[in-house]
Automatic annotation (TrEMBL):
Catalyzes the dehydration of the S-form of NAD(P)HX at the expense of ADP, which is converted to AMP. Together with NAD(P)HX epimerase, which catalyzes the epimerization of the S- and R-forms, the enzyme allows the repair of both epimers of NAD(P)HX, a damaged form of NAD(P)H that is a result of enzymatic or heat-dependent hydration. Bifunctional enzyme that catalyzes the epimerization of the S- and R-forms of NAD(P)HX and the dehydration of the S-form of NAD(P)HX at the expense of ADP, which is converted to AMP. This allows the repair of both epimers of NAD(P)HX, a damaged form of NAD(P)H that is a result of enzymatic or heat-dependent hydration. Gene3D superfamilies: 3.40.1190.20, YjeF N-terminal domain. It comes from the Bacteria. Residues 224-499 form the YjeF C-terminal domain. (6S)-NADPHX binds at residues 60-64, 124-130, 159, 259, 309, 359, 431. Binds 1 potassium ion per subunit. This is Bifunctional NAD(P)H-hydrate repair enzyme. AMP binds at residue 430. Transmembrane segments: none annotated. It comes from Ancrocorticia populi. Keywords: ATP-binding, Isomerase, Lyase, Metal-binding, Multifunctional enzyme, NAD, NADP, Nucleotide-binding, Potassium. The keyword S-adenosyl-L-methionine does not apply.
């Protein structure tokens, strides 16, 4: 499980260590230099003679880079630095002693054109607001140089790419895109959330011993393979189909029959003991012809999946979905509310056992109905804020889909799951996610009902479903090829099996 903390929490955790004289910056710089050397070698280059350009702001982030440049210079690297102001004094002294060359802004372009590696130490967790001059002009110029180069430089960010919001991943102005981010002590939410994540590249975490001084509640969590065993029900000798959870699925319509098939496929693949389908007669026939194990008579269920592909313009279908939603809330049964059915929450409040699964467009519609309009673009620029707002307004758990899926209930921590490539963005992939989430909620159904409002578990399960969905997509697209949503559903059992068998991550 990845845990990410806000800058204030990181600062507070650093304080007692610094008081004890723990050389945090030295450790951070050593890790940064080691990473540069490792990457240079991985490119097949010799370390001595490699040209490295450090971009050095006036704070401790610049200090990290100055000490790292000093270490690199002692290894024979040809190290230069561009300063934005008065630098970290000890770092400057160390770098000068080691022979790092300090260049003025006028030489930035030529240094950037020839350096194999750029190290970004303009700003770290001390940054406030959009990148300001002179850092802004440096980033602008570097991005111009980058596109003009025959071979792109290797860009390594110290702690975070300069220009991204450490706490929320927003990018209010320009930011310097990195291939690798060497983050100090612990991950920051901005490295996991969109759009900041897109600037961070691969993330390397440097242990600094902060853990015992961090608050018990991180700002953001992310499910990994090893967490799945805690959430997925592995059947034992006493299990039977009902104890394994029954999912009710009311999805699809004559207009969108495929949604019925995709959501039920995923509900089956997710490991519930039984799937009951409650859609129109025509789609029922389709579903059963493809999946003879699906039951169409109604009985008890432990979770409902409502809405994917339902034609909400059809008053009868819409009122049937609304009735199921109300009944489930009364009975304490968790519900996945997907696609057009999300609009039902325009006027009613629900408990957090109702999980809505909007994409940015659907969330925009819901927020507008609730009198807090945000455009799609505004949601994409700050998805965690938008998801939290929707959860607070409706009471529901929100799983906002995108290249990084974000899940939260009104008060509990935020979950974020990224890592799936754009191949996953294919029609029907959301229907698959809804069915899969219904399957895991059904496995927890009675327990969630006993917990009353859910106690944050639906958000955790939504994150787990999102993780498995991303892994299933990755199994399907492999090293990269177009896929369709039914392939994602087909790969769910393998994704769950691999996660259950995993001991790493
Ligand atoms: N504490 C430790 O021992 C450890 C800390 N560590 C490292 O320290 C980093 C935090 O250092 P920090 O607190 O000094 O802040 P930092 O990120 O360098 O930024 C401050 C500078 O940026 C400037 N600035 C601000 N906003 C700006 C903007 N929008 N656009 C442009 N400039 C802006 C601001 O200018 P000012 O506002 O003062 O004019 C000031 O000059 C952390 O990320 C990690 O790398 C690690 O080594 C582990 C041990
Ligand atoms: N750029 C992207 N990279 C990876 N996954 C994405 C990206 N954009 C969207 N997704 C995922 O693709 C799915 C799309 O779902 P959705 O938009 O609801 O499609 P549909 O309604 O056709 O089922 C979601 O699971 C979402 O997480
Ligand atoms: K930085």
């Amino acid at each position: 499980m990845l845990r990410a903390y806000r800058s204030d929490d990181v600062r507070q955790a650093e304080a007692p260590l610094l008081e004890r004289g723990v050389p945090l910056m030295d450790r951070a710089a050593a890790a940064l230099a080691t990473e540069v050397i490792r990457r240079v070698r991985a490119l097949g280059n010799r370390v001595p003679g490699t040209e490295v350009l450090g971009l050095v702001g006036s704070g401790n982030n610049g200090g990290d880079v100055l000490f790292a440049l000093a270490r690199l210079a002692r290894r024979g690297v040809s190290a230069s630095a561009i300063l934005t102001g008065t630098p970290h004094a000890a770092g400057y002294a160390a770098a000068s002693r080691a022979g790092v060359r300090f260049a003025d802004a006028g030489t930035l372009r030529s240094l950037a054109e020839s350096a194999e590696v750029w190290i970004d130490g303009l700003v770290g967790i001390g940054a406030r607001g959009p990148l300001r001059e002179p850092a802004l002009e440096i980033v602008r110029e570097l991005e111009e140089v980058r596109v003009g180069r025959p071979v792109e430089p290797l860009v390594i960010a110290a702690d975070l790419p300069s220009g991204i919001g450490a706490d929320d991943g927003t990018v209010p102005g320009l930011a310097l895109r990195a291939n690798v981010t060497v983050t100090m002590g612990i991950a920051k939410p901005g490295l996991v959330l969109d759009p900041g994540r897109r600037y961070a590249g691969e993330i390397v975490q440097v242990p600094l011993g902060l853990e015992e001084f961090l608050p018990s509640e991180p700002a953001l969590l992310s499910v990994g393979a090893r967490d799945i065993a805690d959430m997925w029900d592995v059947p034992g000798p006493d299990s039977h189909k009902y104890s394994r959870g029954v999912v009710g699925v009311m999805t699809g319509s004559l207009r969108y029959p495929g949604a019925a098939l995709l959501s039920t496929s995923a509900a089956l693949a997710g490991g519930a003991g039984m799937v009951r389908y409650a859609g129109p007669r025509e789609t029922s026939r389709l579903v059963v012809s493809q999946h003879p194990e699906i039951v169409t008579d109604m009985g008890r269920v432990q979770a409902w999946v409502l809405g994917s592909g339902v034609n909400m313009d059809d008053p009868e279908a819409a009122s049937e979905v609304a009735r199921r939603l109300q009944e489930s809330i009364t009975a304490g049964i968790p519900v996945v509310l997907d696609a057009g059915a999300i609009t039902l929450l325009g006027s009613i409040d629900v408990p957090s056992t109702v999980v809505i699964t909007p994409h940015a467009g659907e969330l925009a519609e819901l927020l507008a109905a609730r009198g807090e309009p945000l455009s799609r673009e505004e949601i994409a620029a700050a998805p965690s804020r938008a998801a939290r707002l929707a959860a607070t307004l409706t009471g529901a758990t929100v799983l906002l889909k995108g290249s990084v899926d974000v899940a939260c209930a009104p008060d509990d921590p935020l979950w974020a799951q990224g890592g799936a490539a754009g191949w996953r963005a294919t029609a029907g992939a959301g229907d698959v996610l809804a069915g899969l989430l219904g399957s895991i909620l059904a496995q927890w159904g009675d327990e969630l009902a006993d917990l009353g409002k859910g106690h944050g578990i639906p958000a955790r399960l939504a994150a787990a479903a999102s993780y498995i969905h991303g892994r299933a997509a990755a199994i399907a697209y492999g090293t990269g090829r177009p896929i369709v949503a039914s392939e994602i559903a087909g790969a769910i059992p393998q994704a769950i099996g691999e996660a259950l068998a995993s001991t790493g991550e």
